[in-house]
Amino acid sequence: MHDDPPHDRLPPPEWLSHGAPAAVLAALPGARVVGGAVRDALARRPVHDVDVAVALPPEEAARLLRERGIKVFETGLAHGTVTAVLDHQPVEVTSLRRDLVTDGRHAEVAWSTDWREDAARRDFTINALSMDASGALWDYFGGRRDLAAGRVRFVGDPATRLAEDYLRVLRFFRFQARYGTGAPDAAAIQAIRDAVPGLARLSVERVWMELKRLLQAPEPLEALALMRQTGVLPAILPEADSTDALARLLAARAPAEPLLRLAALLRPGTEAAALARRLRFSTAEAARLRGLLDASLRPAPELDGASLRRWLAEAPADLPADLAWMAEAADGQDRAALRHRIDTTPRPVFPLQGRDALAAGLAPGPAMGQALAAVRAWWLAGGCEADAAACRAALLALQSNGPA
């Protein structure tokens, strides 16, 4: 097994001393934490997911974990990955690998015992770091230095890394948005320009996954501008408009919610259904985007009490606050006071249902639906203040005397 001495030794992070990560490392001789957890620990950022690598075949790693009483799920055995779970905390464990064949989207791999070889197949230097339970740090490609400098740099030749997996084009911008400062790496940018045609080979699900993660970054504007300059944004999201509306959202401290930010990025008139089909949104995502892009639903900057209640009653139940954000992004008029009123005003709910119409003597059918709709229109016109008793009275009056 090729195993260089560590390049540094640090006090081990607190999360390495207990719980599932510590148990997994203890069960697997020579295992190390790799990738994002090491990167974020060095950057003094919260560590969420812990991934472990080991110089053992996946079947052997699974056996050793089970011998320690750790549950093992064979979540990616063909790629050398199993998921260890202890006390409901998952840890992905992956065997050291080397690529045999890559096609820009998938790779055939073989197991390895060479840590440097495994690190060399990773995308960026800041993701090629590894650390053992004692705090020993391996940094084969200067990732710690790049992290401190705010530099997102490919491991080795950028064009080679991109040809192995074109999704790395999008990952570059995601990491640039979160970790990059100053001018981006020139070699990376040139390689990305050349790799744009390869984006057509990616599944739309992977594209949307990376775009969502980028849009969740605290400050995605510079990365999006760079994507436009390199031709990446037009290739994956031709519906994108200028970033002016998104900039207004960020300036107003809107939530870092990817669909909200996507909606602000799109050209006015974008057909939500077509975009949702192309990127294969879930049903919920498609419905949400459709509401966010419907300019007719957005509130004016100032609404009196009755108008606000009517608007709340008519707006999709999960969208009122976001519709106010979209209105502000579109016209630049401050709606902070309105958002506060939206948050503190109970959403009015029409108090009658079909059973109320049946109790009033209406027969099931279209006429009953029309009667309820007429009473609801009366309720809305009155500012949604009539209670159930008043609405039942209006329904009875409608039945006896015509429209309420």
Structure in a nutshell:
This protein has about 400 residues and is an alpha+beta fold. About 50% of the residues lie in helices and about 10% in strands. InterPro entries: Bact_CCA-adding_enz_type3_sf, NT_sf, PolA_pol_head_dom, PolyA_RNA-bd.
Total E-strand runs: 10
Q: What is the alpha-carbon Rg in Å?
A: 28 Å
Q: How many structural domains does the protein architecture include?
A: 4
DSSP summary: helix tally: 21
Low-pLDDT runs of 5+ residues are none
Q: How does the major sheet shape up?
A: 8 strands, mixed
The helix content is: 40-55%
Q: What's the CATH H-level homologous superfamily of the largest domain?
A: Beta Polymerase, domain 2
List the helices and strands and how they pair.
Layout: E1 8-9, H1 19-27, E2 32-34, H2 36-42, E3 51-54, H3 58-67, E4 71-76, E5 81-86, E6 89-95, E7 97-102, E8 107-111, H4 115-120, E9 129-131, E10 136-139, H5 143-149, H6 158-164, H7 167-179, H8 186-195, H9 204-215, H10 221-230, H11 232-236, H12 244-251, H13 258-265, H14 272-278, H15 283-293, H16 305-314, H17 320-331, H18 336-344, H19 354-359, H20 366-381, H21 388-401
Helix pairs in contact: 6-8, 7-9, 7-10, 9-13, 12-13, 12-17, 13-15, 14-15, 17-18, 20-21
Protein name: CCA tRNA nucleotidyltransferase
Family: Belongs to the tRNA nucleotidyltransferase/poly(A) polymerase family.
Domain tRNA nucleotidyltransferase/poly(A) polymerase RNA and SrmB- binding: 189-241
